[in-house]
Specification:
It contains three helices and two strands, in the order ββααα. The protein is mainly α and 90 residues long.
Length: 90
């Protein structure tokens, strides 16, 4: 979390060189989740060299947030399944 960016309209930033994500403090929890999700999709785009545009990243963010809103147990299922499959793994 950071207090702001050079461009005051920016809400988040993903640095592909340092692999660091920063999001602007003071957002509502829902806005913070949306901003973090957006920046995670940028990180995946950079890491996998997908060549996505800003509009495509934004579309993925909005779509994923909608999935979460409509399926509120999704993250719990995902987390529980991941945790269960990795028990004992080092």
């Amino acid at each position: 979390m950071v207090s702001g960016f050079v461009d005051p309209t920016d809400l988040g930033e993903c640095n592909p060189n340092t692999k660091e994500i920063k999001i602007k403090s003071g957002q509502t929890p829902k806005e913070s989740v949306s901003t973090l999700t957006h920046e995670v999709f940028h990180a995946v785009n950079f890491e996998r060299e997908l060549g996505l545009t800003e509009e495509q990243v934004e579309g993925m963010e909005l779509g994923f947030i909608k999935v979460l809103e409509l399926n509120q147990d999704y993250l719990k299922l995902l987390y529980d399944t991941y945790r269960k499959s990795n028990r004992g793994a080092k």
